[in-house]
Amino acid sequence: DLHAQMNDLLASAPAKVVANTVFFSEAQLDPGYAYISRLKEITQPLVLEGEVSPLRSPEMEKIAAILAEAELKLNTDRTLAESYGKSANVLLPLLFQLGEMNGRPDQALPDFIARNRLPQALEGDALLPGAQAIQYPIEVLASQVQGLGHLNAIQDVDGAVRTEALVVQYFDQYYPSLSLMLAARSLNLGQYIRLGKGEEGT
Asked: pLDDT tens per residue, the chain (202 residues)?
């Protein structure tokens, strides 16, 4: 997997923080992966140590080894997740659907997403962009990265993007931007991000 190879190279540099702006919102599995997995499930019990089977043979053990290798190679999401877990310095993006927040969210966000929210809540009305929906990376990847931050661009009336919202409000939760997370992590200030009403740059 090219993303895993690139991340391994950056980790060996070593890079202090790596922000990947690709949205991994869907699992990416090779079309043949499901068949390889089923064949592996069938052959694996036939070659396990201590198992007695009339089908066990050196040839069957070779077949099982090839299937195990193919299953590992074709599961690119797991390969990338292992690379992220080893480097422990990767940030991935969130994408919010900005708009007026009505009522309560349809369901609570999973823990691997909610843990990236800012712990401080603002009292009263805050002049922050609101979001009514969220798109996030698949769990196998999001659970292995150092943090997540939003990658929303807010256009001016002429269509140009001149500023960035450092924080987006998702109902009663607040999520930092990817660039803010990148700067904070590079300065070892990730845990010191604070929300301050009416104060710029906090």
From this structure: 799 999 999 999 989 999 999 999 988 777 787 878 888 888 877 766 655 566 667 787 888 888 888 877 888 899 999 999 999 999 999 999 998 888 888 899 999 999 999 986 655 555 788 899 999 999 999 999 999 999 998 888 898 888 888 999 999 899 999 999 999 999 998 777 777 665 554 4
Contacts of 144 (CB under 8 A, 6+ apart): 81, 82, 84, 85, 90
pTM of the model: 0.79
How far apart CA 185 and CA 198 sit, in angstroms, is 24
Give the CA distances from residue 33 to residues 43, 78, 108, 112, 158, in Å, rounded to whole numbers and listed in that order.
15, 12, 32, 26, 47
Supply the DSSP string of 37-98, one letter for each residue: HHHHHHHHHHHSTT---TT--HHHHHHHHHHHHHHHHH-HHHHHHHHHHHH--EEEEEEEEE
